[in-house]
From TrEMBL:
Amino-acid positions noted as binding substrate in the UniProt annotation, renumbered to this chain: R54, G55, A56, R89, Q199, N250, K251
Function: Catalyzes the interconversion of methylthioribose-1-phosphate (MTR-1-P) into methylthioribulose-1-phosphate (MTRu-1-P).
InterPro entries, per the entry: IF-2B-related, IF-M1Pi, IF_2B-like_C, Initiation_fac_2B_a/b/d, M1Pi_N, NagB/RpiA_transferase-like
Pfam families: IF-2B
Organism: Roseomonas fluvialis
Protein name: Methylthioribose-1-phosphate isomerase
Pathway: Amino-acid biosynthesis; L-methionine biosynthesis via salvage pathway; L-methionine from S-methyl-5-thio-alpha-D-ribose 1-phosphate: step 1/6
Reactions that this protein is recorded to catalyse: 5-(methylsulfanyl)-alpha-D-ribose 1-phosphate = 5-(methylsulfanyl)-D-ribulose 1-phosphate
Length: 361
């Protein structure tokens, strides 16, 4: 993503020392752009849990670098470190995928060789994610171009943040949008605020604005109204886990957007990298673990006051309890199709198995 005209990745090795890890503190966005320096696996775990870094592909890549940092300190601690990092967030399967890949690369090496190998494997995971997301963008671009051929402007609705900030580079759901914009296609994005953490209003709006993409922030419940009035041509969302049957876990509220899209004949596409597929799961509603986060994310809001201070205030009635399921599952029957790095496919078991035979096996 471009920030002040400079292209950045969301996670990288610190150029100053060549071993520590830099991430953008997403809890400070959009108010401030601050790069955190992480020096050990405990700081990486905290960054993932606290959502200083977030997004299914990005937490996988960041956790991989956490393993590398741990190997620099104690290369004999591989199994324990990987187990600890794998428990930081339960829903996004990319985290477990990246940890398993690190284990596979390091487990049988002599301890003295693990540090260099860990850094190399973490870098390979990050490069793979960037290349995968760029390919997702290319494969999703024709969906937007086809609409642009018959309309003066393409209106796309997205939920949560599935852009550069959720991946190493490009994004999943936003990658086709960036490519359309860069190709000169007039595109406009309806950005769901995405309560309770407001990842849409704070993060998606920030990165679209930084890239120069036209967008409008709307309340989460406005999507159905916009669809009823013909103001949404296409819905594209990301995902934290896709089952072998095509069920999709994504930020809470995605299921309702899919229902509204189906009722109004609006295509509902899901963009995902290979690391998000979980072939072990068949029934997403019954089997995908849904993270329950702090009630304070629902009862409290953080924002900038008129005099520039960042403050947190309570918006719920005093004494009222709150529940905070962070994700929901959209059944495959509501998904028009999947945009992957290998192409676009229906959200069906046969199509997924044919596109990813090595995973099906």
């Amino acid at each position: 993503m471009r920030i002040d005209g400079v292209w950045h990745r969301s996670v990288r090795i610190d150029e100053a020392d060549g071993w520590s890890v830099r991430i953008l503190d997403q809890t400070r966005l959009p108010w401030a752009v601050e790069w955190l320096r992480l020096v050990d696996e405990d700081q990486v775990a905290h960054a993932i849990r606290s959502m200083q870094t977030r997004g299914a592909p990005l937490i996988g890549a960041t956790a991989a670098y956490g393993v590398a940092l741990a190997m620099r300190r104690d290369p004999s601690a591989l199994e324990g470190v990987c187990a600890m990092l794998a428990e930081t967030r339960p829903t996004a399967i990319n985290l477990r995928w990246a940890i398993d890949r690190m284990l596979g690369a390091l487990r049988n090496l002599p301890v003295q060789d693990r540090t260099a190998a860990a850094y190399a494997e973490a870098a390979a995971i990050a490069d793979d994610d960037a290349a995968t997301c760029e390919a997702i963008g290319r494969n999703g671009l024709p969906l937007i171009a086809e609409i642009a051929a018959r309309k003066p402007r393409v209106n796309i609705l997205t939920h949560c943040n599935a852009g550069w900030l959720a991946t190493v580079d490009w994004g999943t759901a936003l990658a086709p949008i960036y490519m359309a914009h860069d190709a000169g296609i007039p595109v406009h994005v309806w950005v769901d605020e995405t309560r309770p953490r407001n990842q849409g209003a704070a993060l998606t709006a920030f990165e679209l604005g930084a890239h120069g993409v036209a967008h409008t922030v709307v309340a989460d419940n406005a999507g159905g109204h916009l669809m009823q009035h013909g103001q949404v041509d296409l819905v594209i969302v990301g995902t934290d886990r896709v089952t072998r049957t095509g069920d999709v876990a994504n930020k809470i509220g995605t299921y309702l957007k899919a229902l509204a899209a189906r009722d109004n004949g609006v295509p509902f596409w899901v963009a995902l990298p290979h690391s998000t597929l979980d072939m072990r799961v068949g029934d997403g509603v019954a089997e995908i673990p849904i993270e329950e986060r702090s009630p304070a994310e629902v009862t409290d809001l953080t924002g900038r006051t008129a005099d520039g201070r960042i403050e947190t205030i309570r918006v719920a009635a005093a004494g009222s309890p709150a529940a905070n399921p962070a994700f929901d599952v959209t059944p495959a029957r509501l998904v028009t199709g999947l945009i992957t790095e290998r192409g676009r496919i229906p959200a069906t078991p046969d199509a997924i198995a044919a596109m990813y035979p090595e995973k099906a096996a």
